[in-house]
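One thing: can you check what follows?
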Amino acid sequence: MRLFGWSGKRRNVRPVIVDRFAVIPLLSETVELRRDSDGNAHLREAPNLNGLRKKVVELLGHDYSRKVQLDEYGTLFIDMVDGSNRLSDIVDRMVAEFGKERKDVEEGVVLFTKKLMTLNMLKLKVEGSEA
């Protein structure tokens, strides 16, 4: 019997994120970081290919990697992604460094984090859990 969408089966238990700025961002293992002459960061994510995509890459040289060129804000963000800084630490540093309003910086950090996660370049570690 189902009551309000509950089927009685146990679902995957995921950590509950109470404070979204308490998570620790981590670069994915497939991301390569480079710098340009201005010191800005460039990210490149090369997915692990198999099957038809791998054959296309081998035969035609098609590049399935994703590339992101960062400005000074994104570069500071990435520089602070070291496995120990939380998103709140990144926001604090950006507010101090660039003199922007905290609310604006928080919104930007959340959007940027979501964008990099969508591109499989970033993952989040919740305190007390595995990455």
Summary: The chain has one domain: 24-125.
